[in-house]
């Protein structure tokens, strides 16, 4: 029941994100890997209706009108907006590559649109050399997260390999006007529930932020909060924090 | 910084869970796989202090007093209680084996003590043949979850391969006096936040419960609730629900 995400170039009738373009039914043609995916995962056959969306654009329904070995054609009606985003900017100490892939997918499913992958003291140097950081690999995980959520709007992912310049020079602008929280198992302040405004949330690596990093973030108005006395794995903690805050 | 979980037979001085036993320092001896684990993961060396707990018993600190190729000995003082449990009974449609392992670990880390792995219509038959369901494999994941949480109390895991008899005959007793919730993406009732009393939470498989199953659970007093319009993967949904409820 996941969304099928279409790229503008799949449309035979021009870019569907163009606001001046006709909003009636449009024709889409899929081949190659996309065709295999739609046949295997969505069991596409002629006459079947599928949920579709355009990357960076609207969503709607598509009806399969032609299907052979080389291509699938759909008539799509794009009359819906993607679900509202989660107003959370996530600063995440770069996790190990395998965890990163799953996390990027989940964070995207939750609706986060601003992700900063950050170097901190306890992030292993080797993580920055991982192929999981290649833009195409990151994009693949984001798309999987969008498909799961029925969303179309890709998050922006920034890689920041220098903690201090990021926190001192870039973070003040990024976090301005938001509630600033720092997940820190040592804190005694419980993480707030159901916050309605925008949030900037910082999550450390396995082992946590070092005291210098906690102080640097506190100097930028971040408050240390905890989910309780049971430390969670990073990927579980991120899901738990986003669920608690939203 | 995880806990080292000790089994009663690791104690040279008798069962440490025995309430009549001396609460002074006790001597523990580890060999084989446990020895390797403590050396590699906890970098044990003579004089080092480590967090320890006894499966099913108290927790405390241990000091390494002897270490060679074959054995490690610790002097341990068990003066602490494990963290309080999370008063949630989790009914979980049996997920695919790889997901099951991670989920059992995470659910345990959250402090859930009652887990029912349930057959539902959309659970693939083959999942029940997986070696991941062998008691020793399940126990291994539970222990990993306890070590992560600093907990010592193993959850009870029940496998129930027949939905109807379980829901009609066993569930009423199990769920008595608890708030009964059913995670259902189609519901319009938001999942409650920060519930203080005991809860029974039912979570379906990928694709959800079928209408018959929803009705059977509703007949037992379960209320369908949702985390919003973005469907999460099962393992992420479980973490999100437990975080939201607690």
Describe the structure.
The structure is a homodimer of 246-residue chains. Chain A has 246 residues and is an alpha/beta fold. Helix content of chain A is 29%, strand content 26%. The first copy, chain A, has 6 helices and 11 strands. The first copy, chain A, has helices at residues 32-40, 97-110, 135-149, 163-175, 211-219, 234-245, and strands spanning 4-6, 26-30, 49-54, 59-67, 72-80, 86-93, 112-118, 156-160, 179-183, 199-203, 223-225. In chain A, the strands form 2 sheets. In chain A, strands 8-7-6-10-9-11 form a 6-stranded parallel β-sheet, sandwiched between helices. In chain A, strands 1-3-4-5-2 form a 5-stranded mixed β-sheet. The mean pLDDT of chain A is 94.
The most extensive contact between chains is: A-B, 28 and 28 residues
Structural class of chain A: alpha/beta
* Biggest beta-sheet profile of chain A: 6 strands, parallel
Fraction of residues of chain A in helices?
25-40%
Average pLDDT taken over every residue of chain A: 94
Tally of separate helices of chain A: 6
Count every beta strand of chain A, where a strand is a DSSP E run of 2 or more residues. Answer: 11
pLDDT < 50 stretches of chain A: none
Distance from N terminus to C terminus of chain A (CA atoms, Å) equals 24 Å
Brief overview, please?
Chain A is an alpha/beta fold and 246 residues long.
List the defining traits of the structure above.
homodimer, 246 residues, alpha/beta, 6-stranded parallel sheet, 5-stranded mixed sheet, 6 helices
